[in-house]
Give the backbone structure.
Amino acid sequence: MVEVIRQGAICKVPEQLGEKNMSGLKICIVEDEDFVRESVVQLLNMKGYNHILEASRGQEAIAMIEKEKPDIVFLDIRLADNINGIEVLKKSRGISPNTKFVMMSAYQDEFGKQTKELGAYGFLKKPITKVDSFINIIKEISDKK
Amino acid sequence: MSTLKEEFHALGNWHNKISMGSIVTREMLADPNLIKLPHEELKKIIAKAVKTMGQFEQFISGADKAAEKIKPFVYEKLGRDTEIPQRRDIL
């Protein structure tokens, strides 16, 4: 038996069912809503992306990005402290220049252009309704590496 | 008193939670390897899916409350049945 993360829970499964990390990608989810953040982590785990970091606050996200240098950051704009996603993007671009930032917000009209100019790789408009929204962008970034 | 923008944000948050929860639950239950899992692990996954379905009730109730708070903002400006602006100064 091997231990794998499946559906967000650590499960013991027969070795032949153990999933391998499909990529070496390190992905960070920055989102203040616990349910949404945990759902994204679970979804990515199910798709074989097991190296996932999480943060709910801007300051925490910046420290994590500086320390871990993730390949991709999915970054919500409204966060749990007074540092929003745009500030995180501004501060993190310099400390982890190879990280790709994908913004997440319902307000693409308001923030899309600004975040693109600040160097964001992409923008996922909330509500996110398709699993492919995450997977396609991860694959696209992965293929370019 | 909250603003219209805050209430729309709250409504969007509930909407996003329902959307993400449904995506994850569907993916979880559609996994073709699910049936091959040991019984105890399968039980854990089903319990997690049931818990998420239960949370939907809370999210839908939250969305409903946000929509109720938005109504007065709208109906102050537009007639509930006529959809005609109520005040000439906003024409």
